[in-house]
Amino acid sequence: MSLIPGIGLGTFRLQGNEVIDAVTSGLGVGYRHIDTAQDYGNEAAVGRAIAQGGVPRDEVFVTTKIHHEWLGREALLASLETSLERLGTGWIDLALIHWPSPGGEVPMAESIEALAEARQRGLTRHIGVSNFTLAQMKEVLSLSGGEAIITNQVEVHPYLANRRIVDFCQGHGVQITGYMPLAVGKVMSDPVLQAIASDKGVSPAQVALAWVIARDIVVIPSSTKPAHQRSNLAACELTLSPTERARIDELDCNLRIADPDFAPDWDD
């Protein structure tokens, strides 16, 4: 069983009152996993919403991510202390390295050891990585501290199944967390997803989420509207037939949406 709640609320691009309202309504409709990052610039607002949300702190799983500029030992530890101050949540449930060090500028061994030290110090209960390639995951798992890595958060949606990294991580006991599961809304106009959704009386977004969830992947869709948040949560109860899943499998075209200039050389 995953240590991470199976569905979370993403907060990328949300700021100020918008993120406070989204997290508050998300907690209200039943979300218990909130995903933020140093790079999002909204940790303080997320923390404020959690504090005001009426849900006991120990029932909310908080993930944040360390910016790639802070991957040296001292910088990483200091950045997490700052994140914890901004969040004001008492502890972080999961801290991830957001992106691998560009060009390997900071040795991975240093970053992973620092991340493990952060866990030992009690800054975070769990540690993981994000956007790590197959080759990088093999290296991570060979390093001191690598045995404590519980997830690799990567882009996963019907147009980017990301099978090699998913299969490798799952085969080595590392949970995959899938971000952008709705491909920034592209799933809504897809004829295959629309047809399956129509047959089941649900939305294409719910079908896409159910497909990701059926692969034992944690999903973190982002939504600011309570109705959409409820709909996304309901996708956890949606079952797709093997035939339906196979039809969605065929949509994979290696469409990578998150690919900044500092991204690693993808090996999928």
Describe this entry's structure for a reader.
With 268 residues, the protein is an alpha/beta fold. The chain is built from ten helices and eight strands. It has a domain at 9-182 and 217-222: TIM Barrel, CATH 3.20.20. An eight-stranded parallel sheet has the order 1-2-3-4-5-6-7-8. It is globular.
Note the topology.
Blueprint: E1 9-10, H1 16-29, E2 33-35, H2 43-52, E3 61-66, H3 73-87, E4 92-97, H4 108-121, E5 124-130, H5 134-142, E6 149-155, H6 163-171, E7 175-179, H7 191-200, H8 204-214, E8 218-219, H9 226-234, H10 242-249
Parallel strand pairs: 1-2, 2-3, 3-4, 4-5, 5-6, 6-7, 7-8
Helix pairs in contact: 1-2, 2-3, 3-4, 7-8
Throw out a few tags for this protein.
8-stranded parallel beta sheet, single chain, alpha/beta, TIM Barrel, 268 residues, 8 strands, 10 helices
Helix-strand makeup class: alpha/beta
Query: How confident is the prediction overall: mean pLDDT?
Result: 97
State the end-to-end distance: 26 Å
> Over all CA atoms, what is the radius of gyration?
18 Å
Summarize the amount of helix as a percent range.
40-55%
Work out the strand percent.
5-15%
Shape-level CATH architecture of the domain at 9-182 and 217-222: Alpha-Beta Barrel
What is the 3D form? globular
- Kindly report the spatial arrangement of strands forming the biggest sheet: 1-2-3-4-5-6-7-8
Q: Look at the structure and give the CATH class of the domain at 9-182 and 217-222.
A: Alpha Beta
Number of strands: 8
* Low-pLDDT residue intervals, each spanning 5 or more residues: none
CATH fold-level topology of the domain at 9-182 and 217-222: TIM Barrel
**Sheet having the most strands:** 8 strands, parallel
Number of helices: 10
Helices and strands, in N-to-C order? EHEHEHEHEHEHEHHEHH
User: Superfamily at the CATH H level of the domain at 9-182 and 217-222?
Assistant: NADP-dependent oxidoreductase domain
